[in-house]
Design brief:
Elements lengths: L1 H21 L2 H7 L1 H13 L2 H5 L13 E3 L7 H4 L5 H21 L9 H17 L11 H17 L5 E3 L11 E7 L4 E6 H9 L14 E2 L7 E2 L3 E7 L4 E7 L4 E4 L2 E7 L1
Parallel strand pairs: 1-2, 3-10
Antiparallel strand pairs: 3-6, 4-5, 4-7, 7-8, 9-10
């Protein structure tokens, strides 16, 4: 009987251990969205590509009497397209918050009229954003941006009409894409890629970022004939019949392949 009890206990412990090992990055984001969100936001603030998308006092037309709380830009311009909705939503939401804060700092409105409101909205929205099953896109504004814009414009009307009008939505949005074609020599049996922000997120979560079974943000590259929209820095996991290896890839440094494409070649 004692032997059976020990065996059962060992089996349970083994199952629990296996469950812990099998936990993925996405699951960790669901379990603790706030710490993951603030890691992401801090990461974005230090990323040069993201900073280039942020408004500053030097790149604002002083003759423009309008400012937008939302932007046509999003993180695909810095990190490419992603399929994981939960992680992409947190990243895009952090980007929206950074943009909103940066834009309002250029307007001349006192921080007392907007800073605490943005912080409260951000804090109250993180969990809902992380749990959403649909891609969050606030370029057309939402109830918060519409309310904040109305309050700021009311402040402008009562106190200083030289301040810019605040719009709750992005304006004049367009598309801009760069296709990347991945070519391997010899031909690989599988190619998977992950943007560095997700790779580093997995390391922050104490997962093995080189294993797609744990760091579940890898995307399969379907065919060397088909390009895929990418931006920024990536880790590319290439699997041949007898070996696999992770490579670094920076889209900005890729050779121009013509017709809006860039080529990345790698040899075993």
């Amino acid at each position: 009987m004692m032997l059976r009890q020990l065996t059962a206990g060992t089996m349970i412990a083994s199952m629990l251990c296996s469950t812990a090992i099998a936990e993925t990055s996405t699951q960790k984001m669901v379990d603790d969205p706030k710490s993951n969100y603030f890691f992401i936001k801090k990461y974005l603030k230090s990323d040069q590509r993201i900073n280039s998308l942020m408004p500053s006092g030097t790149d604002i037309d002083i003759n423009d009497d309008r400012r937008t709380l939302m932007t046509c830009s999003d993180t695909t311009l810095a990190f490419g397209q992603q399929k994981k909705i939960k992680s992409t939503n947190l990243i895009n939401f952090a980007f929206e918050m950074l943009y909103m804060e940066a834009m309002l700092k250029t307007t001349g409105y006192p921080t007392s009229t907007w800073a605490s409101k943005i912080s409260a909205y951000e804090r109250d929205s993180i969990i809902a954003v992380s749990l959403s099953r649909k891609m969050v896109d606030n370029r057309n504004g939402n109830s918060f941006t519409k309310r904040l814009a109305a309050e700021l414009n009311d402040y402008r009307r009562k106190n200083n009409r030289r301040l810019p009008v605040i719009l709750p939505t992005a304006t004049e949005c367009g598309d801009g894409e760069i296709d990347v074609k991945i070519v391997t020599d010899p031909k690989a049996i599988r190619v998977q890629f992950i943007n560095k922000i997700y790779f580093d997120l997995c390391k922050f979560q104490k997962l093995d970022a080189s294993k797609p079974s744990e760091c579940d943000h890898y995307t399969d590259y379907a065919s060397e004939k088909d390009g895929i929209y990418m931006a920024g820095r990536y880790k590319v996991l290439v699997t041949w019949t007898n070996s696999s290896k992770i490579f670094d890839m920076d889209v900005d440094n890729l050779r121009d392949g013509g017709a809006g494409t860039r080529i990345w070649r790698v040899s075993q």
